[in-house]
Amino acid sequence: MSDFNIEKLRNVVLQYKLPIAFDILNSTEPEDKGEPYLIQIDSIPALIKTKRIYDFRWKDGFDMAEFSKTDEDRSGILSHSIVQIWFDEQMFNSGKIDKKIISIIPDQFIDLSIEYLNKFINIYRRVSDQFWIRNIVKKDIFSYQYFLIDKNENQQSIFKMATKGGVYFNGGKEFELEENKDILIRNTLLENYYGFKDEMVALMLDNFHLGRFNLALIQGATLFENFIYSELKKKLSNTKLDKIKKKDDCGCLVGISEICKRGIKEYFDFDFGATQEWKDIQKYMLRPRNKIVHGEILKNIEKDDCERGLIAVKKGEKLLKSEVFK
Question: In the chain, where does DSSP find H-type helix?
Fold first, then answer.
């Protein structure tokens, strides 16, 4: 029976594997030569310890020597990591976690561990120039170990899956796309296809789900402008297109706001600038986008703020498709 005493809790440790590796010495074991990294967020510290696992995943008839690496190893082909995030009483007493359930519900520490680890990743990526290493999200963590350590070095551990609802079973059958989607893929493969908009949408959604809300918002605004200009090009002659895009007095290009407020009303007799959809695009998409681009917003915006911007654009495009770009 364990002698662990929750009343003497000293550390909470989360340990999990990641499909990325860092060029730093191991630090998870006492005999390791590497030094843990001390990180502070809101003046609350945590320690990051790592262990690099050299494991060539796709041997295909040949193997690689240990301590091998390749540039831009985005998926841990040659090596991956075990990471540990150590919290102490400064976190327990911070008000960020519920101390009453520390011993039975570890989930509250997962998001905290990711926040600290991503700060490390962001700084490591910048200093090392390893631009291909991206932030992690909870879905990158399949399972984790949760250690509670008291002041007498006694431990209590829990193994948990982090991917709640993210594993699907298909009753012994292969997974396959719906037939109509498979047909669409096959037909599109025979066309001269370059889906810039499709690629931008995929990047925007990927950034949103990775928690890169500033980038997702900027890409959403870019997609809206692409939509406006692409549709205008279909509807107007080159002469009219130049007029709607340029100021009469100087010939310089106007912004998307003037096109949406003045241009659409002038050439299509629809006052889009007076609609609630346009007001929401300005408030939730264009203004925060400009603040990000101009350096007024330096931190990542909240998920809800980003989502409001993307929804506003979607509603605006839907209205324009039904009233203007029919």
Answer: 89-92, 107-128, 179-188, 196-209, 213-235, 238-245, 256-258, 264-268, 276-280, 287-293, 303-323
